[in-house]
Amino acid sequence: MTRRDNETDGRTGTLERTETGQQTGRPRLYRVLLLNDDYTPMDFVVRVLTRYFRKSGAEAELIMLAVHHKGQGVAGVYTRDVAETKVAQVTAHARREGHPLMAVAEPEPGE
């Protein structure tokens, strides 16, 4: 419900409340992808996946292999703000360690 400012009911001086008819739905989801490069070590990618995406060792290795063989792997699916934060964290960590690992966020298909 929203307030319409400066409107009174003419008797008590109170503001009216009206419904806007807007429905809130689920927020759009974004995939965080790790992209393959020829320089970032595989064990570093596994460490990133376990640290920033809370993946188990086995799951992190499967994602790392997808990155290596297919060129990219889905690290996780999040709301936009969380996805952008994860991309920034991974990128900053990779640069601090001297690796060119790239992470990107893209809208989930069908969202």
UniProtKB/TrEMBL annotation:
UniProt feature, compositional bias: Basic and acidic residues: 1-19
Gene Ontology MF annotations: peptidase activity
Signal sequence coordinates: none
All copies of domain Adaptor protein ClpS core, residue ranges: 26-103
GO biological process: proteolysis
Alphabetical keyword list: Hydrolase, Protease
Renumbered residue ranges of the record's region Disordered: 1-24
Name of one Pfam family that matches: ClpS
Source taxon at top rank: Bacteria
UniProt function note: Involved in the modulation of the specificity of the ClpAP-mediated ATP-dependent protein degradation.
PANTHER family named in the record: ATP-DEPENDENT CLP PROTEASE ADAPTER PROTEIN CLPS, ATP-DEPENDENT CLP PROTEASE ADAPTER PROTEIN CLPS1, CHLOROPLASTIC
Protein family (similarity comment): Belongs to the ClpS family.
Subunit structure: Binds to the N-terminal domain of the chaperone ClpA.
Protein name, as recorded: ATP-dependent Clp protease adapter protein ClpS
Annotated organism of origin: Deinococcus aetherius
Name of the gene encoding the protein in the UniProt record: clpS
